[in-house]
Write a structure and sequence with these properties.
This is Nucleoredoxin-like 1. The chain has about 200 residues and is α/β, with parallel strands linked by helices. It is built from eight helices and seven strands, in the order E-E-H-E-H-E-H-E-H-E-E-H-H-H-H.
């Protein structure tokens, strides 16, 4: 996914800091579903949809609702008329949102690439940049957070929630027959202990 943003800059919400895409953003996007939200704080349809999207995002990523944040990242692509309008809109949205800087020509590149002609639009992408849903606005309205499960499966994300980070590489190197070998080892060991016990009983008698 970082390839989509190579040489580009994103900003963190409510911060002036730029996200250096080759490093921080690469890690932020790894193994995650990416939402590109094309919208505007002044558009009536966006004003109606944005609170729905905010609630959708928060319910999947905020620790108040979930034990672990879902593998989800959102980038706001603004059609606001001024930088102040974009900043005002983002202040009302979750802090974890990223944004294309106001006035960046990359915004137009994204609109053309994903054929976005009107807002609001939510393009859902796999970690490799492939499109899962061209515009998920109606799906989010209709299904709420339930649609994330479908995207997660389509994106073939690796669920690392049940693996410690340091164990993951070791786990991935194991053969599929490893559990069978461990079971066989346990059975062989039990058999050896039984045989040993019988020998000792025989010697005593």
């Amino acid at each position: 996914m970082a390839a989509l943003f190579t040489g580009k800059v994103l900003t963190g919400n409510r911060e002036r800091d730029e996200v250096e895409t080759e490093r921080e953003l690469g890690r932020a996007l790894e193994n995650k579903v990416l939402l590109l939200y094309f919208g505007s704080g002044q558009c009536p349809r966006c004003r109606e949809f944005s609170p729905i999207l905010k609630d959708f995002f928060v319910r999947l990523t905020d620790e108040f609702y979930v034990e672990r944040a879902s593998q989800l990242v959102l980038v706001y692509v603004s059609r606001d008329e001024t930088e102040e309008q974009q900043s005002a809109f983002l202040r009302s949205m979750p802090k974890r949102w990223l944004a294309v800087p106001f006035g960046d020509a990359f915004k137009r590149e994204l609109e053309l690439r994903f054929a976005v002609s009107e807002v609001p639009a939510v393009v859902v992408l796999k970690p490799n940049g492939e499109v899962i849903v061209g515009n998920a606005v109606e799906e989010i309205r209709r299904m709420g957070t339930a649609c994330f499960r479908n995207w997660q499966e389509a994106a073939e994300l690796v669920d690392r929630n049940f693996l410690l980070a340091e164990d993951f590489d070791e786990w991935s190197r194991r053969s599929i027959t490893d559990p069978i070998r461990r079971l066989k080892y346990k059975l062989d060991k039990k058999r050896e202990e039984k045989d040993k016990g019988r020998k000792e009983e025989g010697e005593e008698s």
